[in-house]
Amino acid sequence: MEPEIFRRTAAAIESEVGKVIVGQRLLIRQTLITLLAGGNALLEGVPGLAKTTLVRTLAEVIDCSFSRIQFTPDLMPADIIGTTIIAEDEKGAKFFRFQRGPIFANLVLADEINRATPKTQSALLEAMQEQTVTVGGTIHRLEPPFFVLATQNPLEMEGTYPLPEAQLDRFFFKVNVPFPSPEELVEIAQRTTGTQQVRPHKVASGETIIAMQNLARGVPIASHVLGYAARLISATHPNSSHAPEIVRRYVRYGASPRGMQALILAGKITALLDGRYNVAFADLREVALPVLRHRCILSFEAQAEGLTTDEIVLQLLEAVKEE
């Protein structure tokens, strides 16, 4: 695939999704970057902001299968990955057959993931990292492209199970979904309360997405830009010599090497979307927030003073010099 075809295809996907989703350009862009990186996204926002519609529309635009899992406290791992059942053939002979769960789709929406118990949450870990599911000692491979978009409601904390750091780290991006503006609310009402329904067109396929993922990994990155990314990740750790004062004071743990991988891959895709076949410093800064906001664990002092991870990451970007 040529870089120009990559850019045009990505623009077409964003345009078609934008026919259904009002506004939220940054949300659509960051979700697409996650998909093209072969990663998984965690969306945080209040109910009713079209998170389910976004994934369903994206699956329709790229002609891939879609499934939705509503996480509840009584949900079990088998409800996600599937289970082995006893079946019967035409002759009446019984045999064991694996009944696939909803995880076997290209795009999977894990709705309100923090409502399920840690045991059920862990059922996603293997699928998100290795893109396989193991049941009864048998490994089942998930069909690429595979993309998990999980959501959590930041308002309701009662009866929820916060995601552990190890699971948070497996999400490529954490995207905050903002509330629409008054103008966007008017547009949403006009689109959804009338008689005409907007239907997006298919502009890509699963094979196209895989080709785009392969092209993105081949984008070169200069050693000095790579060094900047390494200093940025290192500066998130309070015991690092690169860490600024705000990190030493308010951060308990910084980003992992998986955060470095996400930063580089997201930077490569951002460069391609901008029509360039090389990664610039600006590309890394543009994706630093969704890469780092869930990988920096704040101290109790930061929480007591009302500081957010975004504020610390923004100051970190100012402190770490490009050269």
Explain this structure.
There is one protein chain. This protein is an alpha/beta fold and 323 residues long. The chain folds into two domains: 3-73 and 103-208, 3-Layer(aba) Sandwich (Rossmann fold), CATH 3.40.50; 220-319, Magnesium chelatase subunit I, C-Terminal domain (Helicase, Ruva Protein, domain 3, Orthogonal Bundle). Helix content is 45%, strand content 16%. It is built from 15 helices and eleven strands. The protein has helices at 3-18, 25-36, 51-61, 78-81, 118-121, 123-130, 165-168, 182-192, 206-217, 223-234, 245-250, 257-273, 281-292, 300-304, 309-319; strands at 41-44, 66-70, 82-88, 94-100, 107-111, 132-135, 138-141, 147-152, 173-176, 251-253, 297-298. The strands form four sheets. A five-stranded parallel beta sheet has the order 2-5-8-1-9. Helix 1 (3-18) packs across helix 2, helix 12 crosses helix 13 and helix 13 (281-292) packs antiparallel against helix 15 (309-319). The protein is globular, with a radius of gyration of 21 Å. The protein starts with a helix and ends with a helix.
Task: Tell me the structural class.
Answer: alpha/beta
Shape: globular
Q: N-to-C SSE series?
A: HHEHEHEEEHHEEEHEHHHHEHHEHH
Strand proportion: 15-25%
CATH class of the largest domain: Alpha Beta
CATH fold annotation of the largest domain = Rossmann fold
Average of pLDDT = 88
Please identify which CATH superfamily of the largest domain we are dealing with.
Answer: P-loop containing nucleotide triphosphate hydrolases
Q: What value does the Rg take, in angstroms?
A: 21 Å
CATH architecture classification of the largest domain = 3-Layer(aba) Sandwich
Question: How many strands, which pairing sense, and closed or not: the largest β-sheet?
Answer: 5 strands, parallel
How many domains is the backbone divided into? 2
Give the N-terminus to C-terminus distance in angstroms.
33 Å
Strand segment tally: 11
